[in-house]
Design goal:
single chain; alpha/beta; 8-stranded mixed beta sheet; 7-stranded mixed beta sheet
């Protein structure tokens, strides 16, 4: 994990491998943002002109590397775009700073230390730059390297790990913040705790399914809980059979790796509210007997992103000491075809007692979630939020960077949406049209796991709603689009697992603790 510190040192005198400054897109060309005054002075006030001559515009996502003049201790200057210059008396938005810091951290992979001299005023800016830098510096290197490259590394490579992959930026020194300011210090401490858990979730999502399956996922969750004071209870396959968890068992019965239900519990002595988070944890989704075609199964190790998000959120709540009780439920299974797998046409008796006709074994996420939501409802929390890479239909509707929000309470849905937007996670409120429920009527069972094809993401939400306890506020986040990024990295978002929805869940817990959610 990249280290992060605050410093009152000047940008010109700090020793580092590089200094990061911001550049905005002005009406007459690029302009140097506040925080970079000393660096601009070292260029005789002509940094903007130098950048423009190199083709820099100040657009978001841009990074321009140039040699530093003799007046700076660092040999390199990295100018990152901040987008359009704010109006007078306005500041750069938190997400703008977060993304710019992420771009800088990615650009500086392989470097040992960098000083960030971006425009920082209040604690919110400090948090944004810290989060962006720590998330942007992420790299998944656990499976890189061979014996040959390991030997060559011993001979002197300093900025690359096994396999010739550059290691993340080693240290970020944040300039312009105040190390002794309580708000600034708290912002950094929160950013470190939060981003460490997001990056833990990213590691889980990126881990190959031959190593991450229900049993090993449960073991990782148990270890994380032990480290941070979170109680963990693992219900194994034998206990699931005894308990009647037909959804989890039905999905997992085709695999050699049996399903698990993991309960995480963080409590605070002064908490007045309890929220339950439920995560879909399909460690690999082949589609089962309804097998996915080639081109649709290569990234299905990411189908446990919801469970990874829930684990990260509960552990974050514990690390931050939030005055709210948070339970997490990880519904873990591997969906595989075999002679013992559930068939289309089979009927499962769920933990709730309801029967479900399985029309498509590739609509498995809703089955494991249904059992977990029913179990979570028994404890009568003030709210339940489930998180899942649930439907391709949601990706069709909202694209690959936005998750959908459904709820049985319009005000709660609005609150979750506002929280997501506030923390920089793109989301959109979606309806639960009652007329779509009829499409899940079954001549054999209480309900089918499929309904109308059009509006498939909404149909899945309606299915889950059937298993929410009476009188409990509930929201469903379908993160199928943003959970796993297959394109080139951007901002602080890497290729692969992203950690989508974790910041939203943590902020929801914080606002619940503060009494801001009823």
């Amino acid at each position: 994990m990249t280290a992060l510190t605050l410093s009152t040192a000047g940008a010109a005198t700090l020793r580092a491998d590089a200094i990061v400054v911001g550049v905005a897109k002005g009406a007459k060309g690029p302009s140097v943002a506040s925080g970079a005054e000393a660096v601009d002075k070292a260029y005789d006030g002509k940094l903007a002109s130098v950048l423009e001559s190199l083709g820099a515009t100040g657009a978001e996502g841009e990074a321009t590397k140039l040699p530093a003049p003799s007046g700076l201790k660092a040999p390199i200057v990295i100018a990152v775009g901040l987008g359009t210059t704010p109006e007078k008396d306005e500041a750069y938005g938190a997400e703008t700073l977060r993304r710019a810091a992420g771009v800088a951290a990615r650009t500086l992979s392989g470097a040992k230390k960098a000083a960030f001299a971006l425009p920082v005023e209040g604690a919110e800016d400090v948090a944004a730059v810290a989060e962006g830098a720590l998330l942007g510096a992420y790299a998944f290197t656990a499976y890189r390297g061979t014996e040959k490259t390991a030997k060559s590394a011993k001979s002197g490579a300093s900025d690359k790990g096994d396999g010739g992959v550059k290691q993340p930026l080693g240290e970020v020194t944040l300039l312009g913040a105040k190390p002794r300011d309580k708000a600034h210090k708290a912002a950094v401490e929160r950013a470190i705790s939060l981003t460490e858990e997001i990056n833990r979730a990213r590691d889980l999502i990126n881990t190959p399914p031959n190593d991450l399956y229900p049993e090993t996922f449960a073991a990782i969750a148990t270890a994380a809980g032990k480290e941070h004071g979170v109680k963990v209870q693992v219900t194994d396959e034998k206990a699931l059979v005894k308990g009647g968890y037909g959804g989890l068992l039905g999905v997992g019965q085709g695999s050699e790796h049996g399903p698990r239900l993991v309960r995480l519990e963080y409590t605070h002595a002064k908490a007045k509210k309890t929220i339950a988070l439920v995560g879909k944890g399909i460690t690999y989704d082949s589609g089962g007997i309804s097998l996915k075609p080639p081109g649709h199964n290569e990234t299905m190790k990411c189908d446990m992103s919801g469970a990874a998000a829930v684990l990260a959120a509960v552990v974050s709540a514990a690390r931050l000491g939030l005055q709210v009780n948070v339970t997490g439920w990880l519904a873990l299974a591997e969906n595989m075809p075999s002679g013992t797998a559930t068939r289309p046409g089979d009927v499962l008796r769920m933990y709730s007692g309801k029967t479900v006709e399985v029309l498509n074994t590739d609509a498995e996420g809703r089955l494991v979630l249904a059992d977990a939501i029913t179990r979570a409802s028994e404890e009568k929390p003030d709210a339940i939020v489930d998180v899942a890479t649930l439907t391709g239909a949601m990706v069709v509707a909202l694209g690959s960077r936005t998750f959908g929000i459904m709820s049985n309470d319009e005000a709660f849905r609005t609150s979750v949406h506002e929280i997501a937007e506030a923390v920089g996670e793109a989301s959109w409120p979606m309806p639960l049209p009652t007329e779509l429920r009829k499409g899940m009527d079954s001549p054999t069972a209480d309900i089918a796991n499929m309904g109308e094809r059009m509006g498939g993401g909404l149909v899945a939400g309606l299915f889950l709603k059937e298993f929410v306890g009476e009188g409990i506020t509930w929201a469903h986040l379908d993160i199928a689009g943003p959970a796993y990024h297959e394109g080139a990295p951007y901002g602080y978002t890497p290729k692969g697992g992203t950690g989508s929805s974790i910041r939203t869940l943590v902020k929801l817990a914080e606002r619940t603790a503060a009494g801001d959610l009823g």
